[in-house]
Amino acid sequence: MHLLELVINSINASATRVVVVINTNPLRFEVIDNGCPIFKTYNNELIENDHGLGQFSFFMKERGSYAIVPMLKGTKVSAVFDCDVVIGDLNATMITTFCTVSAVEITYIIDGKKYNLKKDKSNLTQLIKELRDENS
To answer: Is 14 in contact with 38 (CB distance < 8 Å)?
Structure first.
């Protein structure tokens, strides 16, 4: 759910490309987009409690650490978990993202395996079939 929230935040920042990199052992991930960079305060520091990552930041508070890095064109959010966390159904998260997003290229890389949704969604049917077959 929190990964989906981060991807939606990227899309809301006008990203046309989002890359999600997940390593499951130990659990860590990055969400990198080419949208509008997250804003910094006047002294070049992120606003600690008002950076737009609401539920995600609360979720991470007792489970690990995260970093928000504004880039010239985009933002990178990374998280490292210090404890066991139920990952949930990553395939369902990807399918939900792929089906609800338009005009954005999204790439998930999970433990080195790459799933790429093209902007025109021409490979959506094949991706859904592949993800369903992996769960069979």
So the answer is: no
Q: How many CA atoms lie within 13 A of 46 on its CB side?
A: 17
What are the backbone angles phi and psi of residue 61, rounded to the nearest 5°? -50, -45
pLDDT in tens, the chain (136 residues): 778 888 888 888 889 999 999 998 888 889 999 988 876 544 545 544 444 565 666 566 677 888 888 888 888 988 888 877 777 788 888 888 888 777 889 999 999 999 998 888 888 889 888 888 886 6
- Residue 75 backbone dihedrals phi, psi, to 5 degrees: -145, 145
Helices 90-100 and 124-135 sit at what angle, rounded to 10 degrees?
160
DSSP states along 53-101? -HHHHHHHTTTEEEEEEEETTEEEEEEEESS------HHHHHHHHHHH-
